[in-house]
Fold these 4 entries.
Entry 1:
Amino acid sequence: MSWAGPTELGRGRRIDPRRLLALVAVLLVGMSVVRVVTGANDLTSSGTFGAALRLAVPILLAGLGGLYAERTGVVNIGLEGMMILGTWFGAWGGVEFGPWWGVVLGVAGGALGALIHAVASVTFGVNQIVSGVAINIIAAGVARFLSVIAFTGHGGGATQSPQVSAALPRFTMPFLAGGGLLGWDTPDLFGWLERRHWFLVGDLAGLLGGITRNLSVLTVLTILLVPATFVFLWRTRLGLRMRSAGENPWAAESLGVRVERVKYLGVVISGALAGLAGAFLVFEAAGIYREGQTGGRGFIGLAAMIFGNWRPTGVAAAASLFGYADALNLRSNAAIHALLLFIGAALLVLGAWYLWRRRFAGAAIALGVGVLMLVWYAVTDTVAREFIFITPYVATLLVLTVASQRLRPPAADGVPYRRGQQTS
Amino acid sequence: MSRWRIRLLWLLVPFSAIALAFLVSSIALLAIGASPPAAFRSMLQYGVRPTSLVSMVNRAVPLYVAGLAVAIGFKMNLFNIGVEGQYRIGALLSAAVGAAVALPPVLHIALIMLVAIVVGAAWAGIAGVLKVKRGVHEVVATIMLNFIATGLGAYLLANYLRKPRVGSELLIATRPIPASGQLPPLLVTGGEDLRSFVLIAAVLGVLVYVLVWRTRFGYDLRASGVNPTAAQASGVDPNRMIVTTMLLSGAIAGLIGMSDLFGYFHAYTLDFPTGLGFDGIAVALVGLNHPAGIAVAAMLFGWVDRAAQILDLEGVPKEVIVITKGVIILSVVVAYEVVRRLVQVAEVKAAAEETRRLEREKEAVAA
């Protein structure tokens, strides 16, 4: 079983950092034009980018979690449940022992859920999707059950914890974004530039200001996890072994890799990251555990992993995109509406490119949808929230539909493994 | 191992899973200082009251339909995780259509069910077509479609299908379905009435049984599930089977909400039970994907749901049963896998013995 049908052999296409940078630059120029035309300053304000980063972090953590599990060949539908365990144990730890213990216990809670998944799917070889679904159900029940025991009568209840007051340290870049240095307030260069609203410069300052101002320590940690994951999985021996278990476990076994152990490791890391995402939600987003707080972010993380082609940079890009959509939704409907203009125009450019390359089917789709977006922009003033809610899911389905030939999931992703018994 | 012993071994699967689930629940109960025997006894006492039994059946019916929807996919190795979304969007649109038309009683019911079937099938069909045409795995597609159904349903309900608000009423619901589109209760009791949809669900179960076990199509379906390559070699078009099975599964999933719609809410509201699609997975697994087994499993789940209501009065959080359910799913698949391996070992051993016996005979003849 693999997620996305027929795949190319060999290595997936690498994303060239220069091309990625060029793409970001083009996007920013386009958005800058749209901002100036429509006057929707929130499109590129530092507040929007800051919120986007905050909202992207749990998605990114879940996506990276999914990456670790699936790179070792174990599909993890249970990310959502592991994140729920992360929120509960994070909040409980936060209430009982303080925020740092909260983070540690949140991570441990997620890892514990993952351990159950590993026992069922690796040791007993049961269907990984069934096991994941069971973890999701059990986690929701456990969180509710434990809340009744631990929080009722202590300032919380069956569906929420008491307030988790003590916060984790935060960080703002000195000189560039106005962070303090040795008790001095340094100037806020990005903020000053942003308030000028100059074409492109203001937008760039918004972007840079948003991602350097008032960051939680967990956010910084999560951003660092992206290159760390790449180095670990693609540049270390253990990482190679883990990936080999996801590509061809029997070949790996014949070379002396302890496939089961490596799969356990991948799954437990996966759950730990989902647990961290849960703890982040408690300490950075809500200050409290609340039932249903994860809101499907485990599944969005799974979507981000697929969207990102099972690679850390791809997952990060997808999570940023989904986080940005969420942030605009929170901050300004006018900006979302302006975004329609941007997407419509971008699709027209893409359609023209396809025409130039004589790919008429793609051109027709891009031009058609682009025109629809522009019409939508012209005849409405707002965009319903529900449409933003479904954006990540629609985007993932579209990517799978249009580009599934280009996606390269691990070859033995989801294939049950038993030592010495090759099944595929 | 004889065939009967193997069958017995398979039957052990659900029972050992349920036993394990009760063990884990007992541990959870002990952990909070409650007495498991006392809790189970009060559940049993409360659970065998006539109103409880009626409630059990009412709760079991949607679970049963959900189990059928999941099982028909499982029979050919398709994992329809999107039953939840198909059920919700089917219930919403059929309730809206049902409220918008006036028809004679039986026709009205039939139309509402038809809409639910078509909508559910169409929603699942997207995943089927994507799998066949674009190679998108049905699990991913149906997960995404679940969320899209949630968002789209909320949008349609809030903007187009919502009943005009009366006064300060907060309920978000579609317009009520007139009496011709409601089913009278089968049995009126002092407490909860027995809903008539149970009869339709029973017919549905028989239909599924006949279709899957007694027709050419069903044979192809099961063959594709056991060995797709062999099925294809014998002339079964795998792509067509995938799309058809997804359509069937979605069509059944569309009917999950009908019992509540016809017999209780008479409109689609946000109070429709959630998670039925996922509970359906549990019921299908415990029922070993057979309509009769699914019926027993659905009754069991319905009963546990109902009987647990008493626990809150005893000072035990009834959420313990959610853990019970989750553990049942997990242990049923583990037990299934263990039995599969045991049977495999036994078969290999039997084959080896057979070969040895034949060789001895050959030698005897040669001598």
Entry 2:
Amino acid sequence: MKGICFRKTCPGPSGNEGRRPARRGAAAVIVLALFLMFSSIGLALIHLTQISLHAGRAGKNLTVLDILAENGVKQEFGNLSDVLAAQPFPLPLDETRAEAWLSDPAAHAGEIIETALGRRTPTSSSGGWEAQTWKAESEFSLRAARPQGSFFEAEFLVAVTSRSAIDNLKATRRARLEAALDIAAGNLPLSRFPVLLDRAAGGGNPPEPPSVEGLEIDPGPGRAHLARALVTEERLLPVSAIPSMERALQVKLLTPRNLTPTLLRRVLGLEESPDPVPEGVYLIRDDPGLGGVYVQGDLRELVLGVEEDAQVLCFRGVGSEWTLKFSPRRNRTELTGPEGREVFNTLPQAVVIVDGGIEALGGGRPDGSGGLRLCSDEEIPSILKGVKLTIVSTGPVTIASHLIHQGVTWERGIPSIKENGSELVIFSGGTGLSAPGGPEGGLFVGGDAPQELKIQAELVSTGAGFALKGPARTVYLLGALQASEIRLGAGRLKVHLDPGPADGDDSAASELRTARPVLLVLSLKPRAWSEDE
Amino acid sequence: MGNTKGFSLVESLLSLAFSLIIILAGLELFGVSRDFFLRLRSGSEDRRAALAALDKLESDIGRAGRFLAVPVGLGLLDGLDAGEGGLKIEGAEEELALLRDIEPGQRRIEVVDASGIKIGREVVLGDGTGAQVFRVDAVEDDTFSIDPAAGAFYARETSRLFLLTRVEYALDAAAGIIRRKENGGGGQPLLESVRLFEASYDEGPNTAFARLALRTKEKKIYERHMFPKNMSRAFRK
């Protein structure tokens, strides 16, 4: 036997002959084998640990890629918001272009969105940190276009996608945000602009925008780009509230110049003559029913109030008083004045045209004699639920107390709006009739008004614009303001846009539209988020 | 002579004994290492399974309320609801392209492709202001019947129709299994040997929280805070 083990211990004379010096030491072989075995086990364990590490690293990388992709979407969406905030809205449009867009918005979708953003689409951005990068892109597609007469609203779907990567890693991840971008173009309702400074609608030099400290605008979600006073150099405020005047007077007017004293006297039921209309309050009545109220001359007070289910308007001139009550529920109207009391089983048009100024406009309570007493401190509702009242004046209007709608409560300056369907539109300088000896219009907050005045209205003023008089005070406006000038002095104006009045076919606020076609981005709102799964 | 002398029997026995001791020690060491490795692997697998379950939960929560801003805002759907019984997640699975306007009272809806719609599934129809949830009663080609009937007019251009997906997570405490049920189907086991499963959702900061523990690891609790992006108020306004 020529075994390799224990050769030295083999007895016999030939033991010395079989010895091979090069193969001695079986123990070394065993030790080597054991060493090999343990090394293999150790290496296998180390290898398994490496697999574990790789798996853990891959998981970590995927998480990092997800975060990068999310960053890309957020950055791109933030860029879009910044682009909107930097755009000088409202963007003027020429008539031809506006008409072409209005006739076929879908055919001009690309042009509309690129005009709104002021840049080519799709837009893109990229970013990263060291080996980690992302690329994001926004694509725009027209989802729906809604014509609204002289303007249209277009809803664009914005698909923001971002893809992330890490250098030397094949895997990438994607995140996607779908958003809605609403655009309106054409002759827009003024109430779409939270605060509009029309520098061409004043009488004198173009005014400066109000200070940022004094003006605070909350335009609502998705409208951060409208949280500033929008400024226009071209006149956008209409010369007159023609649709409201036509409703009130029940005549068709192409321009206010058509309203001659003769026509006016006929409308008011007076004897036809070229003489001016005598001062007073007239409830217009015609075959179809009642029209609105026409006031000739200045009013010392116009007090609005709610009495049970009736809306009450109390007109006080110099030495005379008229009270108009109408109840939509009972379909009954009552006018009391120096000439007695009249009752009608129909409702008037809720439009008041004042060819003059209003020295004090505000909310009030019944005074016991059938009229209303102006309440300058009490926060009482003065506009009945469902009533859409428009007040148009030739001269200045001074707001003397709160103008609050039924069903709206204010808590710490923040209005809680419920579906009340009421509206108040005040357009000072909006009759289109010339004011004798002075600038037309002007909307003022009186020196005796409450320290914290609450107004829920759509305010429009040409001429002297909007101004706070007297000591510094805070005005909370739930609605919108468009004026030729905004002077706040040391006071503050906090505007909370109420988009409600602009919606609906019978909206009083939507009757007042820009004199020229413009483009405005109404909102940019995120809709849905999705990621690679 | 000295050079030719081999190991004696005693030397051989001693070396054999030493070799045996070394081999036995090596085997014992190997056994201990193997047990340790298996324990580590088992622990790692448990951990991975728990984390994978949380990943799946996070992925589902990411879809909560997706494209359902209006119905969630109107209170027609929860989007995400967590309670003692578990977790309910609602989201849109796919968009179905409407072929026509939907009139009030209408009970049939025609879409471009209805291949993904099955009887018993729910669809959500809505525009910017209103929404309605319907159950699919019958499917024929690319038309399907709904219950109840449409309650309002939905213009094709401004309305969107989505196939609703509902995912529910619940702990089968007796068996120690977290089950995941999709669209009313049978609950598939997501994670076994579970001792604890809790989930909550706080609407204020819009954060969801889940924690679970396994029977094999008494002290270890796996927790995760999640941000369901589509449930954010920004999407609902």
Entry 3:
Amino acid sequence: MKKYFQNKNFVAGFILFSLVLVLMLVGFIHLPYDPNAIDITNKFAPCSFKHLLGTDHLGRDLLSRIMVGSRVSIFIGVIVMLFSFVIGTVIGSLCGYFQGKIDSIVMKLNDSFMAFPGLLLALMLIAVFSPSLKTTIVALTFMAIPRFVRISRSGFMKLKPSLFVMNAKSKGASNLRIMLCHILPNAISDLIVTSSLTFSLAVLNESGLSYLGLGVQKPDASFGNILSDAQRYILQSPPGVIIPAVILTVLVLGVNLLGDGYSEVNEH
Amino acid sequence: MYYLKKAAGCLVTIVLVSVITFWAFQILPGNAARTILGVNADEVQVQNLEIELGLNKNPIVRYCDWIKGLLKGDMGTSYKYRQSVNSIIAKSLNATVLLTLYAFFLTALIGLPLGIFLAAKKKNPLSHFLSIFSQIWISTPSFCTALLLIIIFTVKLNWLPSIGFTPFNENPAECIRSLTLPSLSLAFGYSSVLARYLRSSLLEEEKKDYVRTAKSKGLSTTKVVFRHELRNAFIPVLTTTGMIVAEILGGSIIIENVFSIPGIGSLITSAINARDFPLIQSLTLYLSLITVATNFIVDILYPLLDVRLRVSHSAKQQGKTL
Amino acid sequence: MNINENRIQEQNIKPLLQIQDLVVNVKKDNRCFNAVDSININIFPGEFVALAGESGSGKTLTALSCMNLLSDNVSITSGKIFLDGTDLTSLDKKNKIIGKDIAMIFQDPSSALDPLQKIGKQITESALIHGMSKAEAKSKALELLSKSGFTNPSDIFNYYPHELSGGMKQRVMIASCLINSPKILIADEPTTALDASIQDDILNIICTLNKTLNTSMLLITHDLNVVKKICSRIYIMLDGKIVESGNVNDVLSSPKENYTKALIDAIPSFSKRGKKLETFELFENDWRQR
């Protein structure tokens, strides 16, 4: 663990991510205001002790909205990452280990899922099932699974002919045991890097969807929502755009740096 | 053989993409006729509309009909606009294609020199700064970059427009102006990705033996990089380039909404809000096909760059072909 | 001092390559040490000199120092290297010496060539950057390729590296090094990575061509059989220092140092089958006392 904290990227990422995490946690304990409380008389209030980050066009406290928004982003990021990790790794490891015809079919299917550019796959599902938080999570998970399938498949394919696997087989270990206890621990570092990438992409994609009005629905706060509202009043209140944009970037940057730092440490 | 294999794979992917798209929009939603007419619709009306839209047939038959129609160039009729999908798409394609090309051009323009610089001048402080700078842009969502650029260039400086699009044949200069901020929003992030890939590829090449050989001949470091390393380093980056074009295409969906550009992206979002399935279905297929085509082009370009994939002289003498 | 060097001194011939008190320092993981510790080597025009020793003795670093090819964590901390009067340790970046007057051929030819360029282009490259015309460079390249044992030089000229075998690639490297008729060629174990069946061939080609062009050679090797066949003088290197030097025949028949004796004894031969390497114990004692 110590060697991770000696890596500059890891430490920087840890600090940045913690900043946003703390913001979210403070929000759990004490939200300064109801994030949906409208107070037109107080719209576009500048930063003050009363409203640390000011208010938006409806007089809603920006800090509270951002705290809730960070909750959504981190929550969605973690859920999407976990689900796609498990599902994708199971599929990919089975393909990579057993290979054969099913492997070819699954990989072709995987490739075709990856042929839908950008948010298209998510948009398809949202089009069919109406926008909501649940739909967003399912859609983003679908988008993330192919990546895990690819990485875990290539990892398992590479490690299957290794000597330590043959050793385990010769001692009578079952396939499941070999995959879980022998190959997986060796393939895990690539998967962890992919996880950090998946988390940051999920956060980015969710904010994009919410921005389009197709993710978290208004009036619930999400970074995308906050920004699409703020855009309409960009002339009156540029900080209303800059502040959430910066915090969102800090979250994603933090996770990216954590991933970079982790892969740098494990390269050696 | 190489080209045949790639073409066959491409075809399979296209078929699968069409199946997925069809399944998503024709099977999943359930009864489209009911959706169009609303919850309180009359049973008879629903059945009539079903017959009119051909929804009462077997799914596989419907799929084949759809494919037959596609091959003839008929992509169906939009629920919302009551026009053929073709005519709607044609108008929007212009803007999206221009945006994608312009954004990719900027991405390469910024990304390639940046990647070379970061690899060559590792210890330079400017290099460290640029490295951090590019890491920030990768982490910023493209629409955030867009909003920040709007604040600087439209609100404060008033140099570039933030809304709308002028078609190329009307006014080329104005067209480029209107597409500059949108393209930059995409290019900032993706050029950083390109630069990082190129940098790491160049650093890998630097360790190889042929670089030492070139230096032992007396070549200066610059010449070694440009004459030898760059071409070799670019091979793995070529795949990334194809991926970046696809991502730019996908990213244009959001960016068109930010800047109110009447392209395919805007069309998709309004179609989703209107639940206009034929339109969404066709647009989805369109965009995916462009992505598959881009990757296929990258695959074709590979042997041009990597001579090891070409037919060797001895094989040519035996009459073998690629 | 051996007999050859005495005679040369009398005739006042200056050495072509003069390595004087060279110290090369290597930094690794916060430690640094002298991989080459104050060595002196002289090579005279037309000579083939061997630099022998085990892996890790500093032979390759010595060669790389002459060619300005040291990596970032390796540096020459003191000493000089003179090639015909020019100091190789303080060369300008834009010098015209490396690749023209001094050339080096490396151990592993498999990845020594740019995989994306044709053979001909790579051979003529060093000629072109040192001022030869395209036509002259091409004809010289073809001539060298044919002298290196290729029966179809003009075909090979247009091949790509992946179409050649290891031995063929090394012959291409020989042509590439000698196209500028350098004054001295440093050969760093040029046959170690090749099949035993072609090692002799490659060595013969190197020697014949060098003799034709009057190119001196510093042959780095750990194979004393090869040294016996083609070199006139030998330097034995151990742990960064020269422990013994002189005429090949003198040194190999009556070695003074225990390490040299151990090296010579280690040369495999049929008569030594099943016998213990006694000289190794003598050397081991020496080594422990350092």
Entry 4:
Amino acid sequence: MRLINQIPSRPSAIMLATIPFFLLLIAYVVGSEIRLAANPQDKLLPALNTIGSTAQRLFFEPDRRSNEILLWKDTFASLIRLSMGVGISALISLILGMVIGLLPIARSSLSSFVSILSMVPPLALLPILFIIFGLGELSKVVLIIIGITPFMTRDLSQRVLDIPTEQLIKAQTIGASSLVIALRVALPQILPRLIANVRLSLGSAWLFLIAAEAVASNVGLGYRIFLVRRYLAMDVILTYVIWITVLAFAVDWVLKTISRKAFPWMEAGL
Amino acid sequence: MSFVEVEDIWQAYGDRSIIERVNVTFDEGEFISIVGASGCGKSTFLRLLLAQERPTRGKITIDGGAPAVEPNQERGVVFQKYSVFPHLSVRENIIAGTGFATRFGYLTGSARRKAREAADEMLERIGLNHVADQYPASLSGGMQQRLAIGQAMAAKPRVLLLDEPFGALDPGTRLQMHDFLLELRDETNMTVFMVTHDLDEGFKLGNRVLVFDKPRWDPHDPGLYGATITYDFDASTNGIPFQDILDRYPSLAEQTQLAAE
């Protein structure tokens, strides 16, 4: 039987899925053992139980000075920035994408502008943002918006253009105005794509958020990681990295579930 | 005064003429089949009727009105595919036939109730009431085309345009769709234009068959001349002409008797 036709059964598929995680874990444990055996004070690859106890301390024990649990405070601050940035980007790109996709006039004037704009490296603009918007929340949110809006807009406008002409003609023959075509033909078919888009752009959004927090902030997940870097506190950094990964995974899963529940017509053909 | 008047239509894209010198009139309630080889302008002609394109020269009027500049409610259309909205349920698709003409595309209150009843009636008629709450993607090709026709009819167009509506269906489903369309034609007396590849289908369904072809051909510049209507058949009696000539001209009956003797 050809390799391309060999499909794993459900149990073996689950096992195959766990193998890379397992291998990574083993590699880490072995490396950590070797280094700790050579030098028990080594901070580079802390043992798993060290990370475990650090995680417990970070999640449940309040900071001695401020009497607050810093991890939750960081998480809250970062998630607020992230959701504001991504939410505003989604809204802007939805409106722009629909306008560019549906109206030839807007397409002529905006589409090349947006594609040029998406070539500007957002992190290069970070100093400008700090100068204009100060070091507060605004500059971090704006960085996320500048970073992900142009390519979301490009993708969404392309999706609107991909709607078959037949549908648009049909809508016109049953009396739909431009507004009705936008609201009832284009918008509902573009919304699932918007969610998919948000899922894809969340990776970049996290990148921009952590970069902005690392440069100038006093609270936030990225800020904390770069702060404890000075003390070589790998156990804290690793806990935060794992926590950010879990958060990103959870947000992605929620969006995927929403998409599946809200747009049953997408799967009607399957 | 004819219902649909086509006056000296020319259509060219750049230097390439697609159709030329088309002059034809249609009466209300006619079922016109349009046949011809690929690339001979029959779909272009349909797009002109639909007002999806404006002709380079000439004009098309319906019931003496002004020539349309964009598709409107006077013209219903069913394409080979993509004619229904995939994100609306079957019933919502029919309701859209009336609902989309409102300001924001939604019907409310009693108007919505009435549209719903009308939609259920239409679904009954096109035989889709058992799948009213499903989405189009879960229907077969034939059912989707029936839905597309129902949706177009719900908007009550003056003329119905069909662009190879059964092109993507299997032969059995095709025959069923023929029966469905013939019934619909008898019930509604709607003016229908149908583009088809299939001559049999054209003669079976239409009571008039137009053939598009290029009568002039320049071997040095094939794009110079466009196609035009080369034949205009009366297909009302299964496509065999003069079947009812004795009914129309009873005086001929005596002569045929004499000739027989």
